[in-house]
């Protein structure tokens, strides 16, 4: 059954929603080492849990990170993103003073923009077929 084994239920719905997020450092500065990325994953995992979401995958390099997040329909992706970026920036700056030299002028670790793409689920053709069949008389 694959991904459908991880279908989740809420009070009024059943859902399986994933978003692929990419955050880039301000000015694409080469900021992160392995220790920064390890801590960032922990921080972002905790932020996701606060939103009743799950950080399914995390990966990063010196100037960007990729996240795959399973999230409930009540969560606005923009609010999740703002919290992920804000909390990680604040906590990393507190815990790793050496990062200061990369962002002292901008006072921000992350670029103001981000990428968000929907991921997974049934192919659109299958969804379209399902919707069309809902209108057919039995």
UniProtKB/TrEMBL annotation:
Cited SUPFAM superfamilies: Transposase IS200-like
Alphabetical list of Pfam families matching this protein: Y1_Tnp (PF01797)
InterPro entries, A to Z: Transposase_17 (IPR002686), Transposase_17_sf (IPR036515)
Endpoints of the signal sequence: none
Alphabetical list of Gene3D superfamilies matching this protein: Transposase IS200-like
GO molecular function: DNA binding; transposase activity
Domain Transposase IS200-like stretches: 14-134
Biological process annotations from GO: DNA transposition
NCBIfam families listed in its UniProt record: transpos_IS200
Listed name of the protein: IS200/IS605 family transposase
